[in-house]
Amino acid sequence: MTPWECLTFEWFGALFSDERILNGIWNSILVGFGTVILSVSMGLAGALMLTQIWPKLRATYYTVIIAPILIPGVVLGISTLVFWDRINRMLGLGADSFLSNGLFLTIIGQSTFIASYCMLVLVARLQRYDIALTEAALDLGATHAQAFRKVLLPFMKPAIASAAVLAFLASFENYNTTTFTFGEYPTLTIELAQKVRYGITPAISALAFIIVVLTVFAALANEANLRRKELVAKARKEATVEELSSGRIRMPGFLSSNWAAVALVVVACATVVVVGTATVYSPQQCIADVQEQKRLETEERINELRRQRDLRRQQQQEAEQGNAAEPNQSQPTGNNSGFGNVFAPSALSGEEEEASEAEEAPSGNNSGFGNVFDPGSLNSGQDN
Amino acid sequence: MSAGVGVDLENLWIRFGDFVAVRDANVNINGGDFFSFLGPSGCGKTTILRAVSGFLEPSDGRVLIGGNNMKGIGPNKRPTALIFQNLALFPLMKIWENITFSMEIRGASAKERRKRADELLDMIALPGQGDKLPSELSGGQRQRVAIARALCAEPDVLLLDEPLSALDLKLRQHMRTELREIQQRVGITFIYITHDQGEALTMSDNIAVMKAGVIDQIADGKTIYNDPSTAFAASFVGENNVFRGKVKRVMGNEALIETNRSGDLVARISSANQGRMKEGEDAMMFIRPEAFTLAPEGASGDHFVTAKVNHEEFEGNAFNIFMEGEGGKELKVSIPNLGQSFEDHTGQNITLEYETNNAVCVPAGELAAE
Amino acid sequence: MPRFLKEFFTRNGVGIGSLMLGLVLFWTIGLIILPQLSMLDFSFRPNLPPPEVGGPKDVYTLENYKYLIFGPEGGGQAFNAVDLKVFFRTLVAAVCVTVFNLILCYPIAYYLAQSKGNHIRIFALMLIIPYWINEILRAFALRIIFGETGVLNTLLVGSGVFDTPFDFIRNDIALYAGLGYAYILLMIFPIYNVIESLDRNQIEAARDMGASWPMIHRRVVIPYAKPGISSGCTMVFMLSAGALAAPQILGGPSSLWFTQLITNHFTNNSDWPQGAAYAVVLLVTCILLVLAIMRLFKVIWEISANEELLLHAAEPLVLPGDLLRLSPGATGDHVGHCLQLPGLPADDALGMPDL
C-alpha cells in the first residue's frame, strides 16, 4: 500500500493549481533571500567582531550573540512582534506601515537566530584565517575595502556559501518564529502546517516528493563535488611542474572513486524514469483497478467492524439498558483502509465518530492513503 | 646600485596600555643598508617593524622614511613592503597572482602581470612555477615567492620579520646567502628582524641589539661581537664567559676587575664605556671561549684564570672544556683542534691565559637569558 | 573618539569598520536585547485596545503572571490548574525527551566518532538529509507512521505483538518520538565533536589494563565527552520545551504544549501581554533549569565553534547543533582563547593590542 500504486502526474497539476501553496512558496523564497542576506552579513560582521573585541567584553558579547540559538522560537517571534509594534507606534505609523509588514517582521525575526548559526559557521573558518594575509594585502598597497574583497572574502567564500545554504534552509522550514510574524505573507511552512492539521492533500504529497527529490539531489551533488575537489587537489599535488605548466594534467574522471557521484547519477536516472512514466501513464485504469481491490478489502473490513460494533452494542445494551447506541455508529466508515483516519479532516479533533460521518461522501474511493491521493478528491481536499 | 632610501626612528615610544614595548628608540638606517634588529623574543623588535610598516602608530616620536614623516600614513601608502614571519602568501591565489598582487591593486592588466611574474620567477630561480598554488611549493620556494611578491611592489624599504625561522637549519643557512645576494642586487634598504645572531652577523651591514624595548647597541657585526657596549649585548651575541666583580683600578682603556671568584683580572674597557667606568663600581667582564689558551701549570697574574674542570667534550673542530664558573654558570673554553694531543683534565685544576685585548669589561647589567 | 574605536577603524578601515559595527549593533541591540526587554516590559502591562495604550490605564501590573498561577479572577479555583499542569507537563516531557535522546544518541555519536571511512560519511549524510526537509512534513511523516492505522500499527498488529492497534498519538508517544527525532542531530553532533578529539590510545590503554566496556565508557569516554553531552542536552531541552510544530501535529487531542497556550493568547485571544508573560515564564524557567542542572554536573557554559566538522564533513550539510560545544571547568576568558586568531605575531605577545 503505497501512494505510488498509481503513478500519475496529476498530483503535480494539483500542486501547481493550489494558489495558497504556490503563494506560500513564493513568500518563503522572498523571506529566505532576505534572511540569507541579512543573517549572513550580520553573522560575518559578528564573527569578525568576535576576533577583535576587547577581551574583557568578549565573553559577554559571545553570550549575547549565541543566546538566540537557545531562546525558544516562539519567544523570538513574540519579542520581534511586540518590539516592532512598539517602534511602529512610537513613530506614529499606521498598521500598514513597513515596520508591521509581515515580510519585514519575518525576515527580522528569523535573522535574529539564523545569524547566530551563520556566525558559528563563519567563525569556524575565520579561526583559520591568518590576519597577516589582510596585513600583507594592505602592505602591498590595497585599501581596506580591497583587502576585504580580494583576500578575506575569497577565503571565507566556502563558509559563506555554507552559511547561506544553512540560513536558507533554516528560514524555509522555520515555523515557531514565523507563526507570530507572517502577517499577510504566510510562508510555505505556515501553509503546510495549516493544511496538515486537516489531513494531507495530493498537492502536499506532490510537494513532499519534489522536496525530497531536490534534497537528495542537492546533498549528493554537494558530496560528489566535495569528493571531486579532494581528488583534483590530490592529482594536482602529485603532478609535476611540466604537467602543471602545460595544462596537461590528468584529472580524475567524474565518476571514478566517487560514490556520491555514482549515487547522484543513479538517483537522477530513477527520477527521470519515475517522472517519465508518470507523465505518459494514464492513471484511469490503474485507479479503477486499485479502487476495486480496495473496495473489496474495505468491505471486508467494514463487515468485520460491523460485527464488532454489533457485539459491542449488544454488550452495551446489556450493560445499560435504555441507552441506545448512537445512530452514527451504525454508519459504515468509508475510510478504514490504508492509513485510514489519520488523514481524515478531523482526526486531530479526536472525534472519530464524526469523522466517519464526514468521510461518508467519497467513501467509494478507497485508494492506498484513503482518498487522499486520488486526484478526484482534490476539491474536498482543498476545501479542508 | 642606487643609494636607497634611509629610515630614521626619532625618539620612538610605543606603549600598549601600561606596557612599554619600545622605549625611546633612535636609529638611523642608511639607504641601501642591510640592517638587522637582533634581540630575544618579546624585546619589541617586531613592534618597531610594525611601526615602520604602518600597522602601528607610535605613541611618541617619529618614523621617517627617506626623510618624510610617516605619521598618519597607512601601511598601504608607505614605500615599504613587509615579509611576514609566516610569509602570508594568499593561499587561494596562484603563485603568479600572489607575486603580482600589488600590480593588480594598481590596475595592471593580466598580461603585464604575467610578464612581470615570469621575470621575478626567473630571478628567484623558480621558472615555470607560476601556476602552482602556494600549498604546492616547498618551504624554501614559498620563502622566495614571498620575497618576489614584496619586490614586485617596488618598495624603497623591504622589511623582513624573521622570515627564515620556519625553515630547517640547512635551508636557513642557504637562504642567508641568497637574501644577502638579492639585497645587493636590488640595492634597496632591508630591515631584518631576527633573534638568531648568526643570521644577523652574516647578513647585516649594521645591527641593533635590543632588550626589553630598549636598543642597547647599534654597530656593525664585528663591533658588536668584539666590542659590546652592554652586558646584554655581550652575552646575547655569541657565546661568552662572564666574570662579575668590581672595578679595582682604571688604567686608561684598561681596567683591573676584582672578580668574585677568580681574583683580579685585567680587561679592555669597551669603547662605548671608556671614561665612564669608575673605581669601586660593579662591573662585568666577558671572555669568549675561543679566546683562552691553556697556560703552563702554576702560572698566575692578572690575565690567568684557574678553575676546576667539570667535564670535557670533543666537538670535532674543537675541544670544549667546561669548568666550574661563576654562580653555577659554567665556564666554557674552546681549544681549536689543530691535530695536537689532548689529555683529559676532568677533576683537575687548570690554568687558562687570555690576552687583555680579548677580555672586555662593561658596567654590570642584565645578562641574556639562556 | 575613544582609543579602542580609533584603533578599530585603523585596523578595519572606516568603510568596512562602520559597516561591521553597524551590523553588529543592529543585531545585538536591535534584534536581540531590545526585543527581549520590550517583551519583558510588555508582559507587565494590561491588555488594552490600541487607543488606550500609553493612556492612564497603561500601568505596570502583575496581573498576567497572577493569571498563570491563580487563573482568571473570580474563576472559583484556587489555582489555574489547567495552565499550570500544561506548564509542568511540558517541562517534564522536555526533560524526558532530552534523557531519551541522550541514551539514543550517545552510542551513535561514539560509533560515528570512532570509525573512519566512506560508510561513516554515508551514514552521516543519511542522518543529515532528513533535516533538509521541512519540519512540518517531517512531523507529518511521523504522524503517518504512528497513526492508528499507520505503518507501525500495521506492522505490530500484523506480527501479532498487539491484538488491536495501539493509539500512539493519544498516548503522546508519537509526540515524544517526534520531538526526539527533531533534535537528534543537536544531540549527536556535540557529542561526536568531543569524542572525535579523544585519543583512541586512551581507550586502548584502558582496555589493555583490563577495563570492561562499561567501565571504559564510565571512566574514560563519558568524563571526556561531558562538555559535548551537556551542550547537546541543553540544546535539546531548550528547543523541545520551546517546540511548537511537533506538538501541534503530533500531540494528542487532549494534551497541550505550553507554547501552544502562548500561541493561543496571541492568535485566538488577542491578549498579547498575557502571551508575553507566558513566554517570559517559559524562557526564564528553562534558563534557570539549565543553569541548575549545569551547576549540579559542574559544567560551565562555554561554546566554541567546531572547525573539524566543518572541514571534514560536507560543509553546507552542517547543521547548527554540531557547531556548539561546551568545555568543562573553563572560565569566560577561555572563550576568548578559543577564538584567538592564529598568525598574530609570535614575537611580542603584545604586538597586536587588543581593542
Element layout with pairings:
The complex is a heterotrimer of chains A (384), B (370) and C (355).
Chain A: H1 10-16, H2 19-52, H3 55-70, H4 73-90, H5 102-126, H6 131-139, H7 144-172, H8 178-181, H9 188-196, H10 202-238, H11 241-246, H12 259-280, H13 283-319, H14 352-358, H15 378-383
Helix pairs in contact in A: 1-10, 2-5, 2-7, 2-9, 3-5, 4-5, 5-7, 6-7, 10-12
Chain B: E1 7-16, E2 19-29, E3 34-38, H1 45-53, E4 60-65, E5 68-69, E6 80-83, H2 95-99, H3 101-106, H4 110-123, H5 139-152, E7 157-161, H6 169-186, E8 189-194, H7 197-203, E9 206-211, E10 214-219, H8 221-226, H9 231-236, E11 241-251, E12 254-259, E13 264-269, E14 282-287, E15 293-294, E16 304-314, E17 318-324, E18 330-336, E19 349-353, E20 359-363
Parallel strand pairs in B: 3-8, 3-9, 6-7, 7-8, 13-20
Antiparallel strand pairs in B: 1-2, 1-4, 4-5, 9-10, 11-12, 11-14, 12-13, 14-20, 15-19, 16-17, 16-19, 17-18
Helix pairs in contact in B: 4-5
Chain C: H1 3-12, H2 14-42, H3 63-70, H4 81-114, H5 118-128, H6 135-146, H7 151-158, H8 173-182, H9 184-196, H10 200-208, H11 213-241, H12 245-250, H13 258-267, H14 272-297, H15 307-312, H16 332-338
Compact summary:
By secondary structure, chain A is mainly α. Helices cover 69% and strands 0% of the residues of chain A. Chain B is an alpha+beta fold and 370 residues long.
Description:
The complex is a heterotrimer of chains A (384), B (370) and C (355). Chain A is mainly alpha-helical and 384 residues long. Chain A folds into 3 domains: 1-18 and 201-281, no CATH class; 20-198, MetI-like (MetI-like fold); 283-305 and 333-383, no CATH class. Chain A has 15 helices and no strands. The longest helix of chain A is centred in the middle third of the chain and has 37 residues, at 202-238. With 370 residues, chain B is α+β, with helices and mostly antiparallel strands. Chain B folds into 2 domains: 7-226, 3-Layer(aba) Sandwich (Rossmann fold), CATH 3.40.50; 239-362, OB fold (Dihydrolipoamide Acetyltransferase, E2P) (Beta Barrel), CATH 2.40.50.100. Chain B has helices at 45-53, 95-99, 101-106, 110-123, 139-152, 169-186, 197-203, 221-226, 231-236; strands at 7-16, 19-29, 34-38, 60-65, 68-69, 80-83, 157-161, 189-194, 206-211, 214-219, 241-251, 254-259, 264-269, 282-287, 293-294, 304-314, 318-324, 330-336, 349-353, 359-363. In chain B, helix 4 crosses helix 5. Chain B starts with 6 loop residues before the first strand and ends in a 7-residue tail after the last strand. With 355 residues, chain C is mainly α. Chain C has one domain (63-338): MetI-like (MetI-like fold). In chain C, 64% of the residues lie in helices and 0% in strands. Chain C has helices spanning 3-12, 14-42, 63-70, 81-114, 118-128, 135-146, 151-158, 173-182, 184-196, 200-208, 213-241, 245-250, 258-267, 272-297, 307-312, 332-338. In chain C, helix 4 crosses helix 8 (173-182), helix 4 (81-114) crosses helix 11 (213-241) and helix 10 (200-208) packs across helix 11 (213-241). The B-C interface holds B 16-17, 19, 21, 41-47, 50, 56-57, 74, 85-86, 88, 161-162, 193, 195 and C 10, 343, 345-351, 353.
